[in-house]
Amino acid sequence: MAEILASLTISWLDPRLLLLTGAGTLAGIYVGAIPGLSVTMAVSILISFTFKWPVNDALALIAGIFMGGVYGGSRTAILLNIPGAPSAIATALEGYPMAKRGEAGEAIGLTTVMSVFGGFVGILALALFAPALSDFAIKFQSRDYFLLGVIGILLVGTLSGESFAKGVFAGALGVLIGMVGLDPMTAEGRFTFGSITLMGGIPYVAAMIGFFGVAEALVQLHSLDVKAIRQKVERIVPRWADVKRYLGLALRASGIGTLIGALPGTGGDIAALLAYDHARQSTKNPEVPFGEGCKEGLVAPEAANNAAVGGAFIPMLTLGIPGDAVTAVIIGALFIHGLKPGPLLLVETPHLFWFTVGNLVLANIFLLIFGLTGIRIFTKIVECPKAILIPLIVVLSAVGTYAIQNNPVHIYWMLGFGVVGYFMKTYGFQVGPVILGVILGPMMDANYRRAMIGAQGDIGLFLWEFVANPISLVLSLFLVFMLLSQTPLRAWLVARLRG
Question: What pLDDT sits at residue 48?
């Protein structure tokens, strides 16, 4: 027990590690807030600088960047309707309407507290249930990940509010965009039309910035004469009554985030989406309708995506399997430092496991401190005259898109997606499902084909496995329930049960 406590508090007692964790968290918040700069990119660049550092120093900085970056995407999602990361897409749906009502300070304060709460739940799960959760996560087969992807695409249909069909169409459009490029199995071009430029695919960041940033800028051109709303930032720290009111939802959303984060290859974007849908289904009488600035829709995804950080470390440390893209990069860093993440890590280097847990706790505390500061400066962004703000958004969008691979072609994609997004918004289509489709599409494609290879191409055996395996059966039933809930049959069943 004494050794565990010593490992937990290394970062707390060493001024250098304390400084590195704090600096990493602060940098992560602002990296995550800039569209086009991802946490994965930041961690990848850091590894090239830290491979000669002591392992504790490198992990302290990386953990801070990771924790801060996941949260940082909510800042621009709330203020400008431009998610800094895919996991903040659901946050934009509720946070941006709050900002338009002058409640940006309250929205950012609430997301900060709930992100920290979710982070602690994920870290607690990492400390207490890592072996058990990793054993459960390893039982997921390719067909189960395929089902998760399909469920995700159908869930995005509920985000459209106005029409489930429009939401599914938007999600399918995203899947189509995600399929562009080289086939991962055969290395043949798909939807490239003979263009070498399209061989590398369409980066989802360019699509995300275009559909959200540029499209929103074009929509705002219709209201240039509207005076900017002055934001209310008198109270940033949420009232205890509000925190207590949403605590149950935050706890459930954190559980969803931890579990989804522990599934190899998923991440905070899927966790936030599932938590947002849970909030929609479980909230009976919200003060404000979902899609118009509902606080429940803000609390759930923010608690879930930060809880997914702790969850993502579970398969990485216990199985050597990355929980998401960032932990895949961190695995590389561990190997560079001569460590072997996997089942023997807890046996051979248990101090490293507990050091990671303690460091994540420290990063989460820094997140609370830094997340509640600088908000007044941030909120000044939305108070700028639109004649200044709109060109600035487009310029920053172009810079962020170009920074991905220093490829000017991506800027053209961004502008094109912006125009498409503008017309989609004009005709009542949500653009969030498109981005989620771009992200989930390749995962669905790869896992479907792996499942078919496992079934030796026999469609009957492939379908049988969906009901023969308990996990697949539960996911299949959930999928059927989702489809039925969008038909008149649901209303008929509800009426019969009540009658």
Answer: 58
